[in-house]
Amino acid sequence: MKEGARTAPAPGWRTLANGVSLARLALTPVSLLAVFAGRWQLAAGVFAVAAASDFLDGFLARRRGTVSALGGLLDHTADAVFVAVTLWAIAYTEAQTRTDLVPGILPLFIALAFLQYLFDSKALAGKPLRASWLGRANGIAYFVFAGVVIGRHALDARWLPAEAVYWAGLAVLSSTLVSMLDRLRVLLRTDSR
User: Fold this and answer.
1) Is 132 helix (H, G, I), strand (E, B) or coil?
2) What Rg do the C-alpha atoms of the chain give, in angstroms?
3) How far apart, in whole angstroms, are the C-alpha atoms of residue 123 and residue 134?
């Protein structure tokens, strides 16, 4: 380092981007209650705000120079918790009414995939999360699938066949399983060296 040159201090945890991620996390119980109450327009509004915040937090962190391992961890945690809890609430309410759009096991595997991602990235030790292309695609697919299901309810879009939505959910579940197995394969191969 050149004499007199200063390095930028590491951003603390109190950044605008982290606040946006925390707001998404705080929306989780609102989404849960909206789904349980069958207030699908409210659930759709909450979902839209959560999805927009997922874009906004990363944009703000890059724009303001506050990108950090903690921010990435908070962002991904907020994503996983919001989507898994929202899809679980939908699956639970659908099981009561015998309308199946969400495979009941999908929310569990979203949570398990996130935990695997968290631990094998060593994020709890302050390292940045390591995402695979399939993991990134699944993260997007979780939001898209939840949005389709909530939108179908909110708009009463019966023209969108329930079977097609359910099969799309099974495809997301299958992709999650493939991603988890791939991460495990890479981890085992790396550890054996």
Assistant:
1) coil
2) 19
3) 19
Give DSSP secondary structure letters for 9-40. PPP-S--HHHHHHHHHHHHHHHHHHHHHTT-H
**Residue 59: which domain range?**
16-191
Answer yes or no: is 5 within a domain: no
**Packing angle, helices 133-154 and 69-97, rounded to 10:** 40
Give the count of domains, the chain. 1
Report yes or no: 183 and 135 within 8 Å, Cβ to Cβ.
Answer: yes
In a domain, 9, yes or no: no
Whether residue 82 contacts residue 27, with contact meaning beta carbons closer than 8 Å, is answered with: yes
> Has residue 52 been placed in a domain?
yes
Helix (H), strand (E) at residue 182: helix 162-191
Q: 3-state class of 122 per DSSP? A: coil
**Cβ atoms 135, 71 nearer than 8 A:** no
Q: Which two tokens stand for residue 167?
A: 């099969």
Q: What is the pLDDT of residues 78-105, one digit of tens each?
A: 999 999 999 999 999 988 887 789 999 9
Within-domain flag for 1:
no
pLDDT over 60 at 3, yes or no: no
Query: What CATH code is carried by the domain that includes residue 57?
Result: 1.20.120.1760
Measured CA to CA, the distance from residue 158 to residue 17 in angstroms comes to 38
Count of CB atoms within 10 A of residue 52's CB? 12
Out of 2-11, 80-89, 128-137, least confident range: 2-11
